[in-house]
């Protein structure tokens, strides 16, 4: 029997995406490299190969079809302008892409006419300026772009902002609307059939995302209050209700968003639920 070719997956080898991406794949049951010197890791048991590449190159490999799918940032994907599309948002490396300058330099993108803009994301910024009919000089820098203004290379920068600490340290302020909201995404080449093994990878990653975002909530409650409890905590497909030895009482189990757990416990307690327990989900397949 001939086996399908292995699924070929691009993973960032450094920067803000690298560690959370490998951690998520480990949680999804895949082998990951043990040292940053390993550039390729084959996981024959799961019929998958991982290629550890520079974050900026991943959309290019996937867009050209050299690799089947990859983990990258939405900002990097748009910057590359590669024919690849988002399949799944992964919830880490969340950032915004913003314009910044010394106070008083500009108030909106329209003020950038004729100015010098430094960025590591030349593709993204050039398109953004063109979309706003602004003619500005875009200078490409590989990183640490916040320093470009102090060194007289640019009037304005466009860069990734998370906490804003790097900007503050450089004496810069944000201006204008955010150019985009970014986070890590799984991408695939546009307009091609799904390769063998992709559906399984997606299901496993979705399982990790649900296990991270949801908890299990168990409680005991009088049977005639189950409808009220379901209105508070409906679960994903309705609660599991089991009989209890105590007459007129039942045990209820629901999945609830982790961030809402404390509020839901308070509300369930108010309507008479007792022995309310919250448990983490280690893994799941919905
Ligand atoms: N401080 C941060 N917080 C959250 N996400 C970030 C942060 N810095 C970068 N990112 C995101 O991580 C992705 C990759 O950026 P990163 O800066 O790690 O790559 P790089 O600049 O190519 O690598 P390096 O900075 O190591 O040279 C982008 O999608 C970016 O939005
Ligand atoms: O808003 P903050 O929390 O300060 O984070 C944003 C900073 O993090 C990234 O830098 P990185 O460490 O990747 O260095 P680089 O500029 O050389 O890419 C980004 O380019 C910003 O400089
Ligand atoms: Mg960086």
Automatic annotation (TrEMBL):
<feature type="domain" description="Histidine biosynthesis HisG C-terminal">
    <location>
        <begin position="211"/>
        <end position="282"/>
    </location>
</feature>
<dbReference type="GO" id="GO:0003879">
    <property type="term" value="F:ATP phosphoribosyltransferase activity"/>
</dbReference>
<comment type="similarity">
    <text>Belongs to the ATP phosphoribosyltransferase family. Long subfamily.</text>
</comment>
<keyword id="KW-0479">Metal-binding</keyword>
<dbReference type="InterPro" id="IPR020621">
    <property type="entry name" value="ATP-PRT_HisG_long"/>
</dbReference>
<comment type="function">
    <text>Catalyzes the condensation of ATP and 5-phosphoribose 1-diphosphate to form N'-(5'-phosphoribosyl)-ATP (PR-ATP). Has a crucial role in the pathway because the rate of histidine biosynthesis seems to be controlled primarily by regulation of HisG enzymatic activity.</text>
</comment>
<dbReference type="GO" id="GO:0005737">
    <property type="term" value="C:cytoplasm"/>
</dbReference>
<keyword id="KW-0963">Cytoplasm</keyword>
<feature type="domain" description="ATP phosphoribosyltransferase catalytic">
    <location>
        <begin position="54"/>
        <end position="207"/>
    </location>
</feature>
<dbReference type="GO" id="GO:0005524">
    <property type="term" value="F:ATP binding"/>
</dbReference>
<keyword id="KW-0368">Histidine biosynthesis</keyword>
<comment type="pathway">
    <text>Amino-acid biosynthesis; L-histidine biosynthesis; L-histidine from 5-phospho-alpha-D-ribose 1-diphosphate: step 1/9.</text>
</comment>
<dbReference type="InterPro" id="IPR001348">
    <property type="entry name" value="ATP_PRibTrfase_HisG"/>
</dbReference>
<keyword id="KW-0547">Nucleotide-binding</keyword>
<dbReference type="InterPro" id="IPR013115">
    <property type="entry name" value="HisG_C"/>
</dbReference>
<dbReference type="InterPro" id="IPR011322">
    <property type="entry name" value="N-reg_PII-like_a/b"/>
</dbReference>
<dbReference type="InterPro" id="IPR018198">
    <property type="entry name" value="ATP_PRibTrfase_CS"/>
</dbReference>
<dbReference type="InterPro" id="IPR013820">
    <property type="entry name" value="ATP_PRibTrfase_cat"/>
</dbReference>
<keyword id="KW-0067">ATP-binding</keyword>
<keyword id="KW-0328">Glycosyltransferase</keyword>
<dbReference type="GO" id="GO:0000105">
    <property type="term" value="P:L-histidine biosynthetic process"/>
</dbReference>
<dbReference type="Pfam" id="PF08029">
    <property type="entry name" value="HisG_C"/>
</dbReference>
<keyword id="KW-0028">Amino-acid biosynthesis</keyword>
<protein>
    <recommendedName>
        <fullName>ATP phosphoribosyltransferase</fullName>
        <ecNumber>2.4.2.17</ecNumber>
    </recommendedName>
</protein>
<keyword id="KW-0460">Magnesium</keyword>
<keyword id="KW-0808">Transferase</keyword>
<dbReference type="InterPro" id="IPR015867">
    <property type="entry name" value="N-reg_PII/ATP_PRibTrfase_C"/>
</dbReference>
<dbReference type="GO" id="GO:0000287">
    <property type="term" value="F:magnesium ion binding"/>
</dbReference>
<dbReference type="Pfam" id="PF01634">
    <property type="entry name" value="HisG"/>
</dbReference>
């Amino acid at each position: 029997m001939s086996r399908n070719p292995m699924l070929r997956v691009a993973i960032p080898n450094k920067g803000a995406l690298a560690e959370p991406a490998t951690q998520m794949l480990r949680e999804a049951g895949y082998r990951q490299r043990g040292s940053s010197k390993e550039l390729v890791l084959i996981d024959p048991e799961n019929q998958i190969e991982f290629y550890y590449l520079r974050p900026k190159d991943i959309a290019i490999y996937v867009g050209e079809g050299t690799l089947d799918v990859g983990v990258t940032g939405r900002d990097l994907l748009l910057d590359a302008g590669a024919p690849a599309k988002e399949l799944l948002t992964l919830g880490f490396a969340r950032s915004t892409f913003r314009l910044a300058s010394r106070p008083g330099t500009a108030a909106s993108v329209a003020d950038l006419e004729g100015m010098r803009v430094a960025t590591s994301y030349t593709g993204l910024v050039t398109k953004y300026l063109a979309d706003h009919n602004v003619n500005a000089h875009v200078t490409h820098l590989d990183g640490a772009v916040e320093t470009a203004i102090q060194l007289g290379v640019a009037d304005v920068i466009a860069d990734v902002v998370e906490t804003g600490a790097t900007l503050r340290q450089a004496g810069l302020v944000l201006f204008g609307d955010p150019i985009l909201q970014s986070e890590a995404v799984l991408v695939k080449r546009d307009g091609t059939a799904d390769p063998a093994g992709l559906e399984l990878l997606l299901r496993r990653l979705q399982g990790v995302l649900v296990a991270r975002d949801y908890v299990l909530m168990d409680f005991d409650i009088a049977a005639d209050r189950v409808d009220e409890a379901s209105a508070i905590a409906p679960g994903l497909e309705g609660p599991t209700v089991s009989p209890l030895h105590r007459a007129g009482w039942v045990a209820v189990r629901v999945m609830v968003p982790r961030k809402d757990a404390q509020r839901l416990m308070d509300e369930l307690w108010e309507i008479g639920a007792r022995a309310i327990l919250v448990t983490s989900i280690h893994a799941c397949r919905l």
